[in-house]
């Protein structure tokens, strides 16, 4: 525990883009609490519900997210996002006004912003967390270079940039977090960030664990595909629908159970008890899979260039089997994955982030 007489007050704010930003911040929050800090969170909707469930004693400030709307068809994903850039810029400006008020009212000592661009401050240390120094788009070329310049222009306003990946060639994010040039700010690789812990001798319970996540309408699209196809297969399976705050459990076929949400402890156990995981190629999910050394079938969110890149990159490395949603057939995917020569991700230090957080707190 910290020996400081007055606990340091740290505000943590995850991006509202899927649940991954919220879940990967959980180990960081635990480390801050273990160091005796008083932690505040800013979030809304299902992100607030998830974090309140994990940290019932922490104050959560209501802060609107970017509230991005997503295209029904993957090929329009990038265009839909670009159309909403003015709305994102407006949200960033609101974040700036909101942060100045909150820092003054609650005497905040530091801010940890997980990929939210407007939470820098002139008077206190602020940290920007991202695994996307290079932002992938369906268009590539000058558009990606322009987005990187804009990205870096915001990152440079923060005191530090924390990257949840491993430095060097044996990494999980490829060129996303290992571009040719890093932003001109203090940059630190955290290693993999996962709230889960490996356990020995866990008894198998499921042939397949399905983790459905990500933005609508694609979350529901994948869910419908899985539910319609899994009933004809003779296997034991658990489907987690990624809808925190709305409890539900139903048996949809013999041996196949669907739940809306599992907390961290329950999901940790379910992943360890499954022979195979089927999920999006969201980066936080990938870090969880790597830490638990699980085999997985990845179905990138259609049109989300980052997930498409990660699926292809990690399949080429042999770590996971990946296929596009438009070609998804569950029976065929399971058969192909059974023949895929999975390689285990060479285990690195999965607790590096703890030292980074501790050093940061000592500097406050």
Short recap of the structure:
One of its GO terms (molecular function) is hexosyltransferase activity. The protein has 364 residues and is an alpha/beta fold. 37% of the residues lie in helices and 17% in strands.
Specify Rg, calculated over alpha carbons: 20 Å
In helices, the fraction of residues equals: 25-40%
Strand order of the largest sheet: 3-2-1-4-5-6-7
Query: What portion of residues belong to β-strands?
Result: 15-25%
Do you know the CATH topology of the largest domain?
Answer: Rossmann fold
Corresponding CATH architecture of the largest domain: 3-Layer(aba) Sandwich
Stretches where pLDDT is under 50 for at least 5 consecutive residues are none
CATH class of the largest domain: Alpha Beta
CATH H-level homologous superfamily name of the largest domain = Glycogen Phosphorylase B
Integer tally of domains: 2
User: What does the oligomeric state look like here?
Assistant: single chain
| DSSP helical segment count | 12
Ends apart, CA distance between termini: 15 Å
Question: Which geometry do the CA atoms define?
Answer: globular
Helix-strand sequence: EHHEHEHHEEHEEEHEEEHEHEHEHH
């Amino acid at each position: 525990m910290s020996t400081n007489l007055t606990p340091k007050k740290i505000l943590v704010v995850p991006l509202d883009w899927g649940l991954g930003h919220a879940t990967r911040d959980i180990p960081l929050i635990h480390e801050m609490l273990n160091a005796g800090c008083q932690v505040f969170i800013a979030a809304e909707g299902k992100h607030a519900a998830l974090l309140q469930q994990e940290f019932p004693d922490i104050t959560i400030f209501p802060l609107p997210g970017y509230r991005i709307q997503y295209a029904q068809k993957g090929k329009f994903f990038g265009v839909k996002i670009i159309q909403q850039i003015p709305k994102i810029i407006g949200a960033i400006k609101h974040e700036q006004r909101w942060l100045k008020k909150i820092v003054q009212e609650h005497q905040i000592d530091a801010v940890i912003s997980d990929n939210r661009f407007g939470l820098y401050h002139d008077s206190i240390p602020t940290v920007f967390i991202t695994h996307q120094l290079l932002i992938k788009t369906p268009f590539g070329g000058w558009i990606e270079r322009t987005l990187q310049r804009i990205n870096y222009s915001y990152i440079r306003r923060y005191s530090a940039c924390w990257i949840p990946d491993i430095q060097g060639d044996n990494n999980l994010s490829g060129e996303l977090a290992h571009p040719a040039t890093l932003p001109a700010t203090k940059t630190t690789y955290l290693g993999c960030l996962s709230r889960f812990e490996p356990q020995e001798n866990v008894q198998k319970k499921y042939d397949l664990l399905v983790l459905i996540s990500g933005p609508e309408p694609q979350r529901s699209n994948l869910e419908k595909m899985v539910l319609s196809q899994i009933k004809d297969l003779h296997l034991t399976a658990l489907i987690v629908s990624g809808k925190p705050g709305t409890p539900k459990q139903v048996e949809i076929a013999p041996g196949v159970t669907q739940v809306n949400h599992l907390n961290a402890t329950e999901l940790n156990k379910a992943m360890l008890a499954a022979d195979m995981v089927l999920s999006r190629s969201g980066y936080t999910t990938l870090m969880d899979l790597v830490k638990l050394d699980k085999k997985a079938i990845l179905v990138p969110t259609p049109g989300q260039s980052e997930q498409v890149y990660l699926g292809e990159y990690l399949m080429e490395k042999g770590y996971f089997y990946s296929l596009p949603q438009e070609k998804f057939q569950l029976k065929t995917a399971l058969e192909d994955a059974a023949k895929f020569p999975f390689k285990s991700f060479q285990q690195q230090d999965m607790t590096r982030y703890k030292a980074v957080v501790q050093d940061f707190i000592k500097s406050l």
